[in-house]
Design goal:
Aldehyde Dehydrogenase, Chain A, domain 1, 7-stranded mixed sheet, Aldehyde Dehydrogenase, Chain A, domain 2, 5-stranded parallel sheet, 21 strands, alpha/beta, 555 residues, homodimer
Chain lengths: 555, 555
């Protein structure tokens, strides 16, 4: 049985899910022993430990000239001392060009089968990847497992499904038979989905697999060779992913260089050299706006970006103020605010928030919000695991500086003890009150656990500011609380014009930070936070070109 | 009955045709009295004459401050003296911004119904548009009728159909019901296709409707207001189109400024001011590479271009050398080589072209080609009508200069008499032999009736040069003649990598210049000749953004 036949049901279901947008997940998100096996967690932890201080030798790519790696665990604040093969840009490019000639000629079905098989294979590595993710990003265990494992695999599957559908959108052949009056002109026509060329996928330090696998799988599925350039601080999780892809390629007698890992170090970054190489046609990037905008402006490249944004919460009226504050407190605490979807600017009218029991003043809400943050942080069974660790020193510094922003500090950032990692780099959220007139303070992303409570004249001003921030500086998510149908439609319409998805009235176990494959488009592509969206049709069909040839039918 | 119901069958058929890519045309291409009415042609001619020397008063848009127009007939070499309303860029933009607020809220079905109705309405103007096209572009009557009338309307319908499908690709609403173990999280989700904003469509002087209506209809269908900026030398054909769109908008109680005509004059061009305006989000452009590349690099805009290219013909082996020469001679003569799909570089091996009757030498082919060009030019019943007139003085000058290219001139350009227009600006093709080493001569577009016969070492060199030209300088079409299956696949593969469609072995009544709606993608978007393709999914879905909102299901 060919690989695609083995995975036929999987791809069919995934394509269906992409269109229905109801709940769908192919990879179970819970790290339960009943699902993944009794020893899976312990094995994963042991596997992770076995990598420390050694050469990562699972890759099958060719042409390395040395070994290097500078990852450091935010939990241990110690180097992992794992080293990876280092190759020159010239070698990476020439490997990819050679691999392109075989990979582009592999049929759509065979490409699909191989890539789906690689996801099945990665499934056995979810726990290895989870520990690798914890000790590079600082994510808590549960997020590290879910985001880097099953959720990333679901996003990869989604990209494969979307590409599979696009590649099969037009017929491979057709007879074009045009009546001309006394005779017909008959042409045999054929259409080829021609891959654009070398694809470079540039990873970030906080979500090393989730934010990269969509680009990797979308480019591979459409026939392009991929060079994966991880953030030098978060290599291991995606290295395991790439190793599994290479393993399946080799098992199918294909060149492992079809998908290469391009590791670099902080002192010798190769990203620009790679991106500017004339043979590189596709670039996927997650990271800061300055570098993302530089990439977007490179001529002759097709570039997919997720950059930074200023995410807003609009508070107008609520059914339950305590549940609202609790929900938002969780969103701010989750992975210490290091998600691209985490809220930053909370717009609250000076007149307060309307509730069934009367108006809750700005100050009362601030107190409730701070209280909820503290109660989660101080819960030893939840706090340390929800907050995790802070990935970079820069983020920790930014949080410390935030206490000096011009405005009342409602909550200072502090440290807490992680029972498992005494040396973890941690920081609880800082909450600062800012007046709506101080736009320079809140009109930029303050990455990390930093929440600004912005006092506005009215909900109208709140909406206008949220829209302006999204239009000018980008936004990936927006939370809004209102019990008024007219206000709700106004927010929905104004934020839609700023290409920002809105989560309305979330309470309980669902948060504005969360973003589900097959249902939520991640980043819309319509504001400065990024030009691409997981996974809309553009995300895959801009990776290849439809070319049609024709010839008269032989009589 | 709503307009969309009136046109339901039309849109359904068009979407089906887009996917089948077999022959389909909704608007009959022949100007036969039996189809369009006994007096249609005479009426059209009379209507065209009635415009001369007058104000064009059919537009319903608002805010004009004056009247101007500088069109000149290439057939008469006299000004048409038609003047059009002139508006400031500020007025055009503020009109469009106001119109955006109503148009974006018109339902997809209603937008579709209105736009399809406008095409029905334009159908009654095909003969008016044909004469308007002749006397602005210099096209012969038959091409002017077909390209600006039915073929343009088919391309517009294709864009409507593609957009209609994309807009309906994802559900408007869905319930997302995620099992969480002991409970389910249930969210009501909704997705909005949010139009990007003001769309500017910049026309060219040679195909004023065919190259513009796709962008106009694609942007309108996706909810964007459109500002049509025609070439100052070819306004009337598209002015009639826009007038019909505005008429249907007003009949449906909508703002005519949803689609405005923005006329300018050679001495005061407004294109850059329009394109750079921050409120302009979408730009469609047909024209020269320098301006197209400037537009593509404008930050924050979605830009669709058709620029220039160097189209090649690869001659390897043929079944019938005379039929081949005749077919290519027609392609060069057709509209005096002023089509973006016209061939320019003919690659012929020094060893000649293989035929069943033996090898035809480079020189023998050159003689046959020249003979076929002359025989068509000198046929008084065909020549003048196939060649038409030369749109601009610059093109006429370029043809004259081509005689001084470094190489043997096989055929000089000359004038001929058009029996209906004694003053027509005409030029027959110039044919020059160039050695394959003189790349500087043939590695640029020489727009107009200029054919270069390039002597190569082998077909391999021919293919390599054709591919290099397409990759470096762009190509919109390619002709290839070979009876060898392996050579054919090599050409198909190498030119596909350069994103160039190939017409193989055309003889008889079908030419490499021709490009059919619903079947041939026009410009692939994959080489420097342009970044857009009529009409692939990108062409429409990059004009709007998918934005999803969500809210917990009320218990």
């Amino acid at each position: 049985m060919s690989l695609i036949e083995k995975h036929r049901e999987e791809i069919t279901k995934a394509i269906e899910a992409l269109h229905q947008r109801t709940f769908y997940a192919a990879f179970p998100e819970h790290p339960a022993p009943a699902i993944y096996g009794e020893t899976a967690d312990a094995d994963g932890q042991a596997k992770f430990k076995s990598y420390l201080g050694k050469k990562f030798d699972e890759l099958k790519q060719t042409g390395a000239t040395g070994w290097a790696g500078q990852e450091e665990s935010p939990y241990l604040q110690e180097p992992l001392k794992i080293s990876y093969p280092i190759s020159s840009v010239d070698t990476l490019i020439s490997n990819a060009l050679a691999a392109f000639q075989t990979w582009r000629k592999v049929s759509i079905d065979d490409r699909g089968g191989i890539l789906l098989e690689s996801l099945d294979s990665v499934k056995n590595r979810f726990f290895d990847i989870a520990y690798a993710t914890m000790h590079t990003t600082g994510q808590g265990y549960m997020m590290a497992f879910q985001a880097s494992g099953p959720h990333a695999a679901d996003r990869a599957l989604e990209a494969i499904a979307a590409a599979y559908e696009e590649l099969n959108r037009f017929p491979a052949k057709a007879v074009w038979d045009k009546p001309m009056g006394k005779f017909n002109v008959q042409l045999n026509k054929e259409w080829r989905a021609v891959p654009k060329g070398i694809s470079v996928v540039i990873g970030c330090s906080t979500f090393p697999t989730w934010n990269s696998v969509t680009g990797i799988y979308a480019s591979l599925m459409t026939g392009n060779p991929v060079i994966v350039k991880p953030h030098p601080g978060a290599i291991l999780p995606i290295a395991i992913f790439v190793a599994e892809i290479q393993k399946v390629l080799v098992e199918n007698n294909l060149d492992p260089n079809i998908c290469q890992l391009a590791v670099d170090t902080f002192d010798k970054m190769i990203t620009k050299e790679l991106a500017e190489h004339p043979s590189v046609k596709l670039i996927d990037f997650t990271g800061n706006s300055a570098f993302g905008s530089y990439l977007e402006a490179l001529p002759g490249k097709t570039v997919f970006t997720e950059k930074t944004g200023v995410n807003s919460v609009i508070l107008d009226s609520v059914e339950d103020i305590d549940k609202t504050a609790a929900n938002l407190a969780f969103s701010v605490n989750l992975y210490s605010g290091q998600m691209c979807t985490a809220p930053q600017n909370f717009y609250i009218p000076a007149s307060g928030i309307k509730t069934p029991g009367g108006t809750v003043s700005f100050e009362e809400f601030a107190e409730k919000f701070v209280g909820q943050i503290n109660s989660l942080v101080d819960n030893p069974k939840a706090g340390p695991f929800v907050l995790g660790a802070v990935q970079s020193k820069k983020t920790a510094e930014r949080v410390a500086e935030a206490a000096h922003l011009p405005g009342k500090v409602w909550l200072k950032s502090r440290v807490f003890e992680n029972p498992m990692f005494k040396n973890a780099r941690v920081a609880t959220p800082v909450v600062v009150e800012v007046d709506s007139s101080k736009k320079d303070v809140f009109s930029k992303e303050l990455f990390g656990p930093i929440a600004l409570l912005i006092k506005t004249k009215s909900t109208d001003e709140s909406v206008a500011l949220a829209q302006e921030m999204a239009r000018q500086h980008g936004a990936i998510s927006c939370g809004a609380y209102t019990t008024d149908a007219q206000v709700k439609e106004k927010i929905a319409d104004e934020m839609a014009l700023a290409a920002t998805p809105v989560s309305f009235n979330l309470t309980g176990a669902i948060y504005m930070n969360q973003n589900a494959a097959f249902s939520d488009f991640h980043v819309t592509g319509g504001n400065p936070s990024g030009n691409a969206s997981f996974t809309n049709p553009d995300y895959v069909n801009r990776r290849f070109t439809w070319v049609g040839h024709r010839e008269p039918v032989k009589k």
